[in-house]
Amino acid sequence: MLEWQPNQGPEREPLACPPGPLSHESMASTVLVDVVRGPEDLAGFGRSLLLDPVQPTTRPDRYPTQAVIVTNAARRLIDLSKAGERLDSVVVQGDLDPTMHPEFTEISGNLRELCRKWYPKAQLVLFSRSPQLEDPLVRHALLAYHTVVVRLECSTQKTFRALTGRDGGDLKALLEQMGHLDHRNLVIRANFVRGTLDNSTDAEVKGWIKALQGIKPAMVQLETPARPVEGIKPVTKTRLTEISEQVSEKVGSQVEIL
What we know:
The protein is α/β, with parallel strands linked by helices. The chain is built from nine helices and ten strands.
């Protein structure tokens, strides 16, 4: 089985924190609240500490360095461990995709080592909406995680563009790259909706399931919004169950309705 190993792959130049009067320690304290949150209960992952490595800073396209992120994470994990707090998962997520961080590989490896030391039974989890899978360093870094949750909820370029805002042509490349990931730690999460945007039609679901057959994820998680918003409506529980049964039959992955 493939395993994450440190110091593997070409090095990338670290992205510096914005200049200013703050020392490294002061910077770490300043961004602690933004970078680290919780613990809180997270569906499917239990008591979770949430980390957001792609918080914006005072300079455009600049994120906190991996040193700041790892320092904050270590401090919080140590405090929780010494206090005897239960922790089931450490979850890396954000409004922007965490894999966009130029030091994502270093962050992932250091978090894996911190979990091993302070919470060896906790799962290290990544939530990714638009993983930068064209980067071999990102693909390697995914091996540091026990679980990688990736959003994939359509099969056509038109729907992909509407859901993600990305160019429709990116969908083909994304599917090809996902097919090369280690399926044993890969979870596909899909949010099905209807209304002005509908990815729950028979045609959409059929194409989506075909894509899943090429990816072979360990698990597929299905969900729908709790209530309508701006012309988007939840699908029925019956429809989610139908989709779940089709995934079980045609893909063979474990299926969970959230």
